[in-house]
Amino acid sequence: MKCVIAGGNVKVLGRAVHSLSRIGDELYLEPTEGGLSLRAVNSSRSAFASFLFAPLFFQLYEPGSTGPDTELFRCKVHMKSFLGIFRSLPSLEKSVGKCLILLKPRASRLVLQLHCKYGVTKTHNLAFQECERLQAVFDTQRCASRLCAPARVLAEAVVHFPLTLAEVTLGTGPGGKIGLRNYVEEEAEPSKTMVTELWLAEDEFQSVAVAPGSHITFCLKEFRGLLSFAEASNLPLTIHFDEPGRPVIFTLDDTVLEVHLVLATLSDLESNSQSPSTNGVSHLPAPSDDFPDDLESYMVAMETSEGGLEGPPSPTFPLRTPRPAKSQPEEKEEEEEEEEGAVPGTPPHKKFRSLFFGSVMTPGRPDPATSQEVLAEDSDGES
Amino acid sequence: MPFSAPPPASGERYALSASLDNARHLSSLLRAVHFQDHATCLATASGLRVTVEDAKCIQANAFIQAEIFQEFSVQEESVMFRISLSVLLDCLTIFGTSSLPGTSTALRMCYRGYGYPLMLFLEEGGVVTVCKINTQEPDELLDFDFCSTKVVNKIILQSEGLREAFAELDMTSEVLQITMSPDKPYFRLSTFGNAGSAHLDYPRDSDLMEAFHCTQTQTNRYKISLLKPSTKALALSCKVSIRTDAQGFLSLQYMIRNEDGQICFVEYYCCPDENISEAEL
Q1: Do domains B16-136 and B151-270 have the same CATH topology?
Q2: B66: exposed, middle or buried (C-beta count within 10 Å: 0-12, 13-18, 19+)?
Q3: How many Å apart are CA A91 and CA A223, to the nearest integer?
Q4: Distances A196 to A7, A181, A182, A263, B75 between C-alpha atoms, Å
Q5: In this structure, what DSSP letter does residue A50 have?
Q6: Which residue in A276, B68, B146, B274 has the most C-beta neighbors within 10 A?
Q7: Which residues of B fall below an 8 Å CB-CB distance to A?
Q8: What is the ipTM of this complex?
Q9: Average pLDDT score over chain A
Q10: Span of the secretion signal (chain B) (predicted)?
Q11: Which residues of B touch A123 (CB under 8 A)?
Q12: Helix A220-233 vs helix A151-158: angle between axes, to the nearest 10 degrees?
């Protein structure tokens, strides 16, 4: 894969990397025919972000050659190493004219070369690891509610919450207002907790299509990273959400860039609920009521199971659905499939890969026949 | 304003006596070489040289010529002593390090000779501080024997182009590799850290390149921890000259312009890393 980013877009790329660094420790690079995708997932797999840079974003874009049976090469690198190259955004803007990215699988090197002022060239040779496709299963079409606002409105709203605040609840209120409130654990003592709540009028949003009485709780920290990117790019941010427990999807759209941030949300249970793992693979078709009480025991169950869920499935990431043609100017659907939260190095279910490969990033091409069935069956010794 | 210190009781004159209207002319240069606690001071008729060394591999010298001082007199041919550079800097900046425009600390320095402490009289806004810093037997200093005739490769760069590079050096790399060549890549700085390798190339026709005299392709490696302190000198300087000799010894000379526009020099000498140094293409 070879691509060249020129001028102001270098800074955009740098900001995207900064944003992704707030999510996970590894940066996944996936060149496709439809553009270069940079992705990250957090360790608990409850947050997933992807930045897809269309070929037009680049001065030159060559995803590489593929044979009939081979896939485009993809890899992951340490986030720190990649971020280090784009660490100082002001100096990127000031001195970098061009950025060249070369992925040479045979030489085992990922080369990033910055062409700077005064003829100076900075070349970084990064080590990478081959990896499986990192995908999350989500579908914005199936979300009952949708909000779209300029990033600035949301940034100004979020500034009222402390930086250390973990979770925030977004919901609808009387008079069509949209509210934000910090999420307080049930065990917290009312006398020692500060509750901040703010309401935004409908007209602050570019579009509001929400199911009345709906609300979701998600991790604010992970959202902030995307928010600062959105603000800097001056793009409107769209929030797709559904019932509590189902993932919230934040999208940013532009002619050359498509950004998705998928966050798990707290389920609405009587007792303390947790963000279920974002693992889209389960062997039970419906959520069960025996939801484990605390996240820890749930996660332990996740980790110890041999690739399958022992508890109830994650209802957060639904199965894939057909996606509309890419020519739509508004938010595009993107179904991807979350990697099994299994033992690292375990190849994903071959079934999934062969079904999903090639369908995600192909603009304009109709999707291959897909079914709504329980494809998310855990096949690890259990199917 | 400078003021006179009382002469020594016995009537003999000080071995070294100097006064400086603005102590920052001295303190900022000393900071550029402050990577070890102790320094060796050598005063001659031409001025003051402060030397700091580490690991028998690296030596930094700060030169403050006699002309920078309002008064500078050395009795014998030369006067030399070892002193705590940290304490000296603390005293020179005793009135604070932030510089308000128009205010400066005046300095008078006196040294009676071998065995005597270095006396500093500092004054700012009418407040006077007297400091007495003990001196020690001077150490034997390294002699890199680096003279112009032995220089193989030499370039002079505008510091602006290197500052950011040095500040962002991958410190997980043990070495800084410097390649100088009449052919591509001309001048290259490389690191080999945990993230991978990084190379910074400066072409010979770059606007930053003030002079380019490379006769032979040389690649040498230096311990990055030893060279990193030179970033301070680089930050103060407007130009830097980078020279290597046949053995791969490195000389970095920084031209520093002080607040009054006067020129001072700081230089760093460094031995190549024994294990790996070679002249290679």
Answers
A1: yes
A2: middle
A3: 25
A4: 42, 6, 6, 22, 74
A5: E
A6: A276
A7: 161, 164-165, 168, 170, 194-203, 205-208
A8: 0.84
A9: 72
A10: none
A11: 198-201
A12: 140
Mind listing the pLDDT tens digit of every residue in chain B (281 residues)? 455 555 555 556 789 999 999 999 999 999 999 999 999 999 999 999 999 999 889 999 999 999 999 999 998 888 999 999 999 999 999 888 776 777 889 999 999 999 999 999 999 988 999 999 999 999 889 888 887 778 999 999 999 989 988 888 888 999 999 999 999 899 999 999 988 899 999 999 999 999 999 999 999 999 999 999 999 999 999 999 999 999 899 999 999 998 888 999 999 999 998 765 444 33
Write out the CATH class of domain B16-136: alpha beta
Hey, what are B141's tokens?
Answer: 């200093």
Domain boundaries, chain B: 16-136, 151-270
Side chain identity at residue A44, one-letter code: S
For B151-270, CATH number? 3.70.10.10
Helices (H), chain A: 9-21, 79-85, 89-95, 151-158, 220-233, 295-304, 350-356
Please, is B1 exposed, middle or buried when counting C-beta atoms within 10 Å of its C-beta (0-12, 13-18, 19+)?
Answer: exposed
| CB of A97 closer than 8 Å to CB of A115 | yes
Strand, helix or coil for residue B179: strand
Contacts A–B by Cβ distance under 8 A: 58
pTM reported for the whole predicted model? 0.75
With an 8 Å Cβ cutoff, the interface of chain A facing chain B consists of 78, 80-81, 84, 87-88, 91, 95, 109-110, 118-127
User: What are the structure tokens assigned to A222, written together?
Assistant: 């992970």
Encoded tokens for A68? 């009939």
User: From the centroid of its chain, how far is CA B206?
Assistant: 26
Q: Which chain A residues are within 8 Å of B205, Cβ to Cβ?
A: 119
DSSP A166: -
